[in-house]
Amino acid sequence: MLAELAVPAQGVPAEPFPNGISRYAIGGLLVGLGAVVIYLGTGIAAGASTFLESTLSYVSDQSRFKRYRASRDWRVVFTLGIILGAAVYAVFWQGGTWTTDVQPWRLLIGGVLVGIGTRIGKGCTSGHGVCGVGSASRTSIVGVITFLTVAIVTAQIVQAMGVSP
Amino acid sequence: MSSNRHPLFMPLILVGGLIFGFGLAYSHMARPEVVLDFLQFDDFGLLFVMFGAAIVSGIAFAVMPRIRDSAPLTGDIYGRRLKSFDRNVLIGGGIFGVGWGLSGICPGAAYASLGIGNVTILWALVGMFAGAYLQGVWRSKRAAADAAPTGAD
Predict the structure, then answer these.
(1) Are A20 and A28 in contact (CB under 8 A)?
(2) b/e for A71-83, b at 16 or more Cβ within 10 A?
């Protein structure tokens, strides 16, 4: 709470980890553990963005989506698990719901670009960033460097234009 | 993947998803503001999340193929997540980067955000499905055109 009040106005941060490191380190280890549990039992290195295309295969006959029919059922279960796991955090740790202040137009337009980009780029922050990098895949490492660099430049430009939140 | 699924297949996927989603919420990656703080260099915590998770999964990817030949619930061979590299990785990564930098939201974190009660995130989820659909229509048409060049419109 105090850290939120002490957020620096612009530019250089007062400190690199104003909210500490443990929440990020523990959370990250759990994200990895979730992927590992699925991998140990099934051999599947799961990503979160394929759910978009595989779920569209229920309602669309586009040939592009047909390749994901075999995996669409378990991907729905995986996504429901993600939602429920986050809900457990909200109830027992967060103490209720939390809502973003980021403006809807940013979420909508950003979402469209994320939906196009992850599917053309063969993965997202979990597929490339966690499972791909964990596999020491050169494709995923290049993918992560690409989207991380572009995202940083984009966010800096948006901030410089005075868009907030 | 085998056609006869093990009865524990879906329960295990659910448990993995639960831990995955709890981790995303616990790390506050389900909050777009925290991701934007990272991209604007106000809080470098996201690095711990992504690389911490990659190290944990990396250990499993490195160790399991040496211990067992195949996974118990599917019979699938333990492999790594390797995708072929081509121009699409750069083009798609660039488009994803613009979207991520604009909104602070990526797919897994968006699902988790819904779980923490962030109904406003539905804007991003609707956008993601629309984007995935648009590229699907475009690529389906292109694939059809490639398959039958003379019949292309």
Answers:
(1) no
(2) bbebbbbbbbbbb
Is the N-terminal amide bond of A165 cis, ω within 30° of 0? yes
ipTM confidence: 0.94
One-letter identity of residue B64:
M
Residue linked to tokens 């470098």: B44
- CB contact under 8 Å between B103 and A102, yes or no, is yes
The reported pTM is: 0.93
Compute CA distances A12 → A4, A8, A97, B28, whole Å: 16, 8, 31, 22
A144 CB neighbours in chain B (<8 A) are 50, 93
CA of residue A8 relative to chain centroid, distance: 25
Whole-number Å distance between alpha carbons of A148 and A132: 15
Predicted local distance difference test score (pLDDT) of residue A1: 46
